[in-house]
Design a protein that fits this description.
There is one protein chain. By secondary structure, this protein is an alpha+beta fold. The chain has one domain: Alpha-Beta Complex (Aspartate Aminotransferase, domain 1). Helices cover 29% and strands 33% of the residues.
Length: 112
């Protein structure tokens, strides 16, 4: 399954004006990196791949649309899968995306 291009457009609209944001095709989806750190992606299995600050992970998992991300048979610590389609409000999407971007910015600088 290909990534959701409408979701990718919504992510781009939210992130493109922010400094340090780049797009890259990764894992069959379209990822948005902040200062070189993957923050959020329109996933290849639908929905949103979201980097989560450990401080809010438990709170985010209370939302029934959000689950821990799994790649193959591995649970990905610190990564969430969000059932995000056109029915997800802009407020919800912006909150998730802004939180992921802020967390990515808080990480140590990437070596280039």
């Amino acid at each position: 399954m290909a990534f959701d291009t409408e979701l990718a457009d919504r992510l781009r609209a939210r992130l493109s004006a922010q400094p340090g944001v780049s797009e890259k095709r990764m894992f069959g989806g379209l990822a948005f990196l902040v200062d070189g750190h993957l923050a959020v992606a329109a996933g290849n299995h639908g929905g949103l791949l979201l980097r989560a600050d450990p401080a809010v992970l438990t709170e985010l998992l209370e939302d029934p649309r959000i689950s821990t991300s799994v790649m193959g048979d591995r649970t990905m610590r610190g990564w969430l899968h969000v059932e995000a389609d056109e029915s997800v409000s802009d407020d919800d999407l912006h909150g998730w995306v802004d939180g992921a971007a802020a967390y990515a910015r808080s990480l140590p600088a990437r070596r280039r």
